[in-house]
Design a protein that fits this description.
single chain, 297 residues, mainly beta, 2 domains, four-stranded antiparallel beta sheet, globular
Length: 297
């Protein structure tokens, strides 16, 4: 029976692609600068300690051999796929939706975006939303084509950037798009109606809140920047009720994207790998049962 139990355990492990995972805070940067000459290299992918803002470099983000800067990232519910968007003025991969491998900072182009975006957020139903600064609206993004559909009826005048987070309980999108001393507004995702919220206070930098993400404990984190080139960035928390901002610490220059996502302890398995692994586990289980029956006789 020990062998049978071992086979069942092996089958459970092989058939569970998310068997060992935990939530980690990741950040992406728009660009990094060469130590000599200030030449454009690439954006970077980091892990970040949410309590101290300490960043650890994973690597430069690239599509094949092409370096890219990423302004926002969001994890798709269920699949855990990490999506990102490039800057509107990216010289090689402009205004594109990417899928990003967290382990190696490798990305692939999913679609060209129909509008420039500054921040992404998924709803629990798998709908991808984006703040589109040029349209001054929250938009829905088609994951297959990159086409966008406006949500709010009336535009919300704001800064060049802007952050968005989805509140699935109230079915609203909360945005900070009027600078780091503006208001925290809500858009009803069904009707498009806009509600002006509390004024933001206590920002580290006055220019903008560039990204939002929510921790597993329900804390709203954001990237607060000074809008420079390179841009100084700080990790902050935001009270969605009062608008009070608390600075945690500085982030690497030009950090824009921020997301809590599952950290895979091993690479995700393809459907073919899962099929082969499951068949192998079943074969091992059958062999154990037959061997046990022969041993009993």
């Amino acid at each position: 029976m020990i062998l049978v139990r071992a086979a069942l355990v092996a089958a459970a492990i092989l058939c569970s692609p998310g068997a060992v995972a935990r939530e980690t805070l990741y950040a992406t940067s728009l660009r990094s600068e060469a130590s000599a000459g200030g030449a454009f290299i690439s954006g970077n992918l980091y892990t970040v300690d949410p309590d101290r803002a300490t960043a650890t470099l994973i690597g430069a983000i690239h599509v094949g051999d092409v370096p890219v800067g990423v302004v926002s990232i969001a994890a798709e519910p269920g699949s855990g796929v990490l999506y990102g968007i490039t800057a509107g003025l990216s010289p090689i991969v402009p205004r594109s939706l990417l899928a990003i491998d967290l382990r190696r900072a490798e990305a692939r182009i999913v679609a060209r975006l129909a509008a420039r975006g500054s921040d992404l957020a998924f709803g629990a139903d798998g709908t991808l939303y984006m703040w589109a600064p040029d349209q001054q609206r929250v938009v829905r993004v088609d994951l297959q084509t990159g086409e966008v559909t406006p949500v709010n009826r009336d535009p919300i005048p704001g800064s060049a950037g802007g952050a968005i987070v989805v509140d699935d309980v109230r079915h609203t999108a909360m945005v900070a798009v009027k600078g780091a001393q503006g208001t925290l507004d809500s858009i009803d995702l069904a009707t498009g109606a806009v509600t002006i919220g509390p004024r933001l206070t206590g920002a580290v930098h006055d220019a903008s809140i560039d990204n939002f993400t929510v921790s597993p404990a329900g804390v709203l984190y954001g990237v607060n920047s000074n809008g420079g080139a390179p841009s100084k960035a700080a990790l902050v928390t935001v009270d969605p009720v009062t608008g009070a901002i608390r600075g945690i610490g500085p982030l690497p220059d030009d950090v824009r994207g921020l997301i809590f996502a599952e950290e895979q302890a091993r690479p995700p398995l393809s459907s073919e790998s899962l099929r082969v692994g499951a068949l192998g586990a079943l074969a091992l289980l059958a062999a154990c049962i037959i061997g046990y029956a022969l041993w009993r006789h």
